[in-house]
Amino acid sequence: MAERRRAAPVDAPRRAAWEVLKAVRVDDAYANLVLPAVVSHFELEVRDAAFTTELASGTLRWQGLYDAVLAACIDRSLARVEAKVLDALRLGTHQLLAMRVPTHAAISTTVDLVRAVANNDGAAGFANAVLRKVAAQDRDAWVVQVAPPGARHAEIAYSHPAWIVAELRRALGPAAQSSPSDTEAELAALLTADNEPPRVTLVARPGRASRDELPGEPTRYSPYGAVLESGRPQAVKAVAEGRAGVQDEGSQLVAVALARAELGPGPDRLWLDLCAGPGGKSALLAALGAERGATLVATERAPHRARLVAQALRGAPGVSGVVVADGRRPPLRPGSVDRVLVDAPCTGLGALRRRPEARWRRKPDDLLELVLLQRSLLAGAIDLVRPGGVVLYATCSPVLAETSGVVSSVLDTRTDVVLDDAVALLPDVPDCAGPLPGTVQLWPHRHGTDAMFMALLRRTD
């Protein structure tokens, strides 16, 4: 029997990226949460950590396109390729088609990785042959071949599941009030934006930090944010001390809109964040409320997320407490709250830039369960708010069932609530009209934010 070939050492950044893909596949992990731990485990320097992040996140974003390319290069179904080998082939394909990695380096390091994880010289030879076929054409040529014009073009060319493409197309239609051709052009812009890595955005919590303390360019619409050009957020003093944090500008605007809403006659003392985890919006709301003498209560159903909320609120003024409770049945007296934020659990399809694996994890069947939960949370929040008080319903999803569908359903079944104009609360934000009059819909391709939806509901007498 021939002596088995000794495996070459595996490049650490590529092995780290493979471990991220494995965690996403096997443990349903979120890549952005796994990456710091993997980088630490492999003791990667800053440059290697950046390479690993782009390799893992980019591969997850473009998995749909890469699988179509690999299917064209393999003489059997991808389902018959061992999962650990397929993950490595996807990593190699991303290096060949989307990164400035020399062809020989992308192929040889991937073959070494396959030999290590599969423990099989046959698998290594297979990977070598497949990647050489991938390298025979550039990305544009592959898109022309595997995603010709037709029903599946957007799905493959922009690497989004078909049902998500359909939902985003529907959401853009009423928001844009445009012709079908205009909607298709804007859909392409949105799908492109979904595949661009988001920049890190910081938020200064009023009364505790000023935007002048934050490095980077001020955000366009939020008066409290700044875009970090480079470096680690924790290296910023205000962030390390908890006086500032990392928060997408769209999420900042949710808190800003609720704080700016005018109330009917009565007090403005108690604010509630009903679905508070992981706590970014709670921290900004607490700071805004404290400036006018209000206190914030944060409720969160999951204990581990409640601990994250408590950590985000540590040292913040104007915090009454963090309560582990189901938002549908919070331990608060009906009619006792002045302002409520319902940042409802949702599909998260508005944040595909920062959670690329969500597009492959979410299924159409998830919608019904989420919509029923969203309706219950919004109805419960209306019960908690006093007459003249307001509820801001927000989702990090533009899907119509989760946005206008939920709001319309609640409005149709209650006579004690009206829909107010949330667009007027954000006068500096252009082209943000949502699917219902007065609602707000932010978009990655228009505003550079997550696709946050907002509706402001006022409790009547």
TrEMBL record:
Residues 176-460 form the SAM-dependent MTase RsmB/NOP-type domain. S-adenosyl-L-methionine binds at residues 275-281, 300, 326, 343. InterPro entries: MeTrfase_RsmB-F_NOP2_cat, MeTrfase_RsmB-F_NOP2_dom, NusB-like_sf, NusB_RsmB_TIM44, RCMT, RsmB/NOL1/NOP2-like_CS, SAM-dependent_MTases_sf. It comes from the Bacteria. GO terms for molecular function: methyltransferase activity. Its EC number is 2.1.1.-. It holds the Pfam family Methyltr_RsmB-F. CDD domains: AdoMet_MTases. The active site is at residue 396. Keywords: Methyltransferase, RNA-binding, S-adenosyl-L-methionine, Transferase. GO terms for biological process: methylation. Belongs to the class I-like SAM-binding methyltransferase superfamily. RsmB/NOP family. This is RsmB/NOP family class I SAM-dependent RNA methyltransferase. The lineage of its organism: Bacteria, Bacillati, Actinomycetota, Actinomycetes, Propionibacteriales.
